[in-house]
């Protein structure tokens, strides 16, 4: 056991000494989550909007002025009827339509309660979400100014956002599970396969094989540090998703962590399999990128919805582990379902891990004879 | 005294290709045994079988009395190994390398400490003990690699072209270390391309096409082949095969 411990400690030295590794390990998830979470939405400036004002009163006019002077919005069109809305969205320039119902000013001034409707083009989900959020907060701050402090019955404007084209915002949160799948694959599979290939390249593998360490100890010693680091990484991404991006965690955290561990184990098996074939770091890296990262990005449903793929690609996507993992994470976090619903995906991942681990261990034997 | 290495008709075939063909020799404990041959003559295959990395196709071999078929785990404990690539981790410090190799051979904490201090003092590496190995000159790395291969006091140490790419003076210093180790009773099994190094060995075997063509002391070999240098002996044996 002490021998094994000495080996694992050496692996941590390697990781710690290699700045690039550390950077990839901990910089990548952060950058990716921020990139996918904010990059798209941060670009919103002068988004084109349309206004459908049935009210033509002073409050509706002032709110429109507020919106347009905020810097976020620019008026492209004033509409006259509901029918115009869909046509406007179809043209694609207008991302948001603000609708003031008849008597808006009257209701607001006399009843203290009025409604505004915001319609957003949700085919670009992130944009739609930010636009409605910005517009809502501008309208609410206008509302606050109208209220005298300590008013007994404060005035209220209820803002009613509606997403057009993609009403339940399917896929809005898909990138966090997707990023998780990608980062874990990258760290687990790529790093392990590269680090094993490096030992072969530098000739230290020979020395290890001549030493009393068993081959399983060597492999497990290689895998263990990355298992721990990947798991830490998974936790970081989950935390970023929840606290930074506001993704709900409706299901069990324990189940989520267990499934994450399962996926990491699967990725490590893949990495081991690659390392039994690859003799150099370069080969290991390309094999990892081509065999795992690309299919994961394109075929897991992370970026392109599986439903809209050609039949042949849909078929291939069934052997992409990340696809199942993404479904599991979405299921647990967003839908809040448990193992009762996710047992099929879990079973697929378990079988895949067993198969891959089996093949890699089998592949190792003949290398020593 | 016990023989460190005994082989009897040791053979390895890869398909139809016979890499080592019925080689038979023995090496005494404490002997410096030179294992010579051109590239592809079967040296590496032979060493791999002796280290327990490769199963022989037929024949027998015993390392420190342990059988290469069934007792590879015991063999691993009593042998050391150093390859031409020096097999140190460049991104680890001198001390970390020593402790790592000592650790995987099962040395305990106190032994590790004592051994590290001893090696660092012997090699005069005190000033760079906590520097990365990558920053050391080639000759220092080589001597460190040799000391590390001896960290668990093996009975036999296999050196696979340990002096590749090193200048003659450094090579000479390295051989001083080999002599010291042999004087302490360690058996040295060394392959080399350099014929001047062959002269330093107690006995030398020369492999050609998977067979051992000659085995004797350097002076004995020179006498029987009627030449005054090991280089001459090697040329005669190598040319003999090329005209065949």
Give a description of the structure.
The complex is a heterodimer of chains A (369) and B (244). By secondary structure, chain A is of the alpha/beta class. Chain A has 2 domains: 234 residues, no CATH class; 122 residues, abc type-2 transporter like fold (3-Layer(aba) Sandwich), CATH 3.40.1710. Chain A has 14 helices and 5 strands. In chain A, helix 13 packs antiparallel against helix 14. Chain A is elongated and about 90 Å long. With 244 residues, chain B is of the alpha/beta class. Chain B has one domain: 3-Layer(aba) Sandwich (Rossmann fold), CATH 3.40.50.300. The longest helix of chain B is centred in the C-terminal third of the chain and has 16 residues. The termini of chain B are far apart. The chains are: A alpha/beta (369), B alpha/beta (244). At the A-B interface, helix 1 and helix 8 of A face helix 2, strand 6 and helix 3 of B.
The parts of chain B where pLDDT drops under 50 for at least 5 residues are none
Please report the number of helical segments of chain A: 14
The CATH topology of chain B: Rossmann fold
Helix content of chain B: 25-40%
Please count the beta strands of chain A (DSSP E, at least 2 residues each): 5
Characterize the biggest β-sheet of chain B.
6 strands, mixed
Overall body shape of chain A: elongated
Instruction: Count up the domains of chain A.
Output: 2
The strand line-up of the biggest sheet of chain B is 6-7-8-3-9-10
Give a short account of the largest sheet of chain A: 5 strands, mixed
The fraction of residues assigned to DSSP E strands of chain A is: 5-15%
Overall number of domains of chain B: 1
Task: Please tell me the overall pLDDT of chain B.
Answer: 88
GO molecular function, one term (chain B): ATP binding
InterPro entries (chain B): AAA+_ATPase, ABC_transporter-like_ATP-bd, P-loop_NTPase
Pfam families (chain B): ABC_tran
Protein name (chain B): Putative ABC transporter ATP-binding protein ybhF
